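Checked the freezer inventory, then went back to the computational side. Two predictions to log before the end of the day. The first one is the construct we discussed on Monday; recording sequence and tokens without edits.
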Amino acid sequence: SHLPLTLADEAYPRSLLDIADPPALLYVKGRPALLQRNGIALVGARSATAQGMANAEAFARALAEQGFAVVRGLALGIDAAAHRGALAAGPEGGGTVAVIGTGIDRIYPARNAELAREIATDGAVVSEFPLGTPPLQHNFPRRNRLIAGLAQGVLVVEAAVNSGSLITARLATESGREVYAIPGSIHSPLSRGCHQIGRAHV
């Protein structure tokens, strides 16, 4: 079952009121209380390297063990690794929130269906889209503003230049959030976006 939250509800996440266009209605499956926790968004590439996946899982677990809710979008690659790392921190941890770009009754990609079930049990799955909304390409950038809005900070694990991850980082900066980046090899295209963030903050 899912719980619809309106702007007037006490359980509506306060942090979303900071963004330019908070959704009037949010669908939540799982534990809505997680939406009030201090959140950290881990962002990165779908086609992540093995090292990037390992970093995402390790950082997410460590952050969840410190009580942060790890916020991500249920995509392949860095997203899935971050959700798994946060779940590995167990029920005492900060948990994980999956902000999806489909209706809450539709899971995309299908290979993350089992992970989505785990998150709906121990964390929270969130969508602003009506029930039955299929995976439409233009809806995925929209959900990035919610990921940035639910988090107090954004950690970029791996990102190419001009990637969606950097868009989320920019949205976070515009909402007054902190942005962090994990550096990588100077030869890796998936580290260039992280290094670009590092230069911007010097």
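The second is the one RB wanted added to the comparison set:
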Amino acid sequence: MANRNGSSNSFSRRQFLVYSAIAAAGVSALTGCSTPRPRRLGAGDKLRIACVGVGGKGHSDVSHCGKEEIVALCDADERQAVQTRKQFPNAKFYFDWREMLEKEEDNIDAVTVSTPDHLHAIIASRAIKMGKHVYCQKPLTQTVHEARYLRKLANDYKVVTQMGNQGSSEDGLRRAVELVQGGVIGPV
């Protein structure tokens, strides 16, 4: 088979793709690279959580999961993090979420994202690709494309995700839903 220059190719484009896929699979098998998967937890195990954005709304998000093990805290503004750092003195503190995720990858199971809106999808996608469960404040994404991308990632990496909608995450509203669904107040 000749290409545009008149020289012959040693194999077709299809063969190239097949051989490339085989090579990539072989390299990942040899290097141990595979899709990260969440750690399996036993009944008594606590989630190990890293929190990005820990001032303001981030503080309440961290506090709500405070019965779990808070491993790391991250905030670009140290002044915003003072109260949360006092509440969780054993958690390592970082200014850069990328550094935190890189250094704490083996120590965490989940990540909370309570940063300014434009960072939500970026941080969530990185955490999911690491096989970490994610709780992310609203808005989860800036575009429909980003939302579909995160949905696909969560399915591919078999992680649990939730977007914070305050009221829908609170125990009182959940109890009210149970009562309505249980027929306690009759038809609605």
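For RB: Residues 13-31 form the longest helix (19 residues). The two ends are 71 Å apart (CA to CA). Let me know if you want it refolded.
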